[in-house]
Amino acid sequence: MNPRVARWLVRLYPRDWQERYGKEFESLLEDSSDSFRTIVNVLWSALGERIVPAATLGVVMHQYPDSVLALSKKPSAFVPMAMSLTALALVLGSVATFGVVHEADEGAVAHLWQLLMAGQLPVLAYFVIRWLPRVPRQTLYVLTLQIGAALAALAPVYFLGL
Question: Which helix or strand (DSSP H or E) is residue 79 part of?
């Protein structure tokens, strides 16, 4: 690979990573073939290092494996919160766009809201069944956040009489 391209690819990584692995990785890239697949793999890896550095990921996760933060990163924990917040955004966006409308036909936004709110119940049940016996205190904290997000999505519907 061209040394200039190798140097440019190494610069895509975070500064700490470059200081630790940069010279060795640059020489490895110079010795490798100049293929499109190699460049794409390096770009993808550099993006991953910028988002979640591999050097700190293992240390943080193993240091406090039963923390509320670690538990809230599980899909069964954050998906219900994301569904509730999406339902809230739908209602607020509809009210901001069309105002408070009372019609016989509820409309697509109301049906999407209902699907989002009802669809999170099986995920919540799975979360509670899976994690409550293992880490009860952290599960209850995350469950409180999930219920708070659901109540936030229910509030405009209740108070605006939608």
Answer: helix 75-98
Convert the pLDDT of each residue in 125-154 to its tens digit: 999 999 999 889 999 999 999 999 999 999
The CA-CA-CA angle for residues 94, 125, 65, to 5°, reads 105
Per-residue pLDDT reduced to its tens digit, 52-93 = 666 555 444 445 567 788 888 899 999 999 999 999 999 999
Question: Which residues fall within 8 angstroms of residue 6, CB to CB, at 6 or more apart?
Answer: 26, 27, 29, 30
- Structural tokens at position 138: 């952290």
Task: Provide the CA 143 distance to its chain's centre, in angstroms.
Answer: 17
Q: How many CB atoms lie within 10 A of CB 82?
A: 13
Single-letter residue type at 80: P
Give Cα 118 to chain centroid, integer Å.
21
Longest dimension (CA), the chain: 70
Q: Where are the domains of the chain?
A: 3-63, 68-160
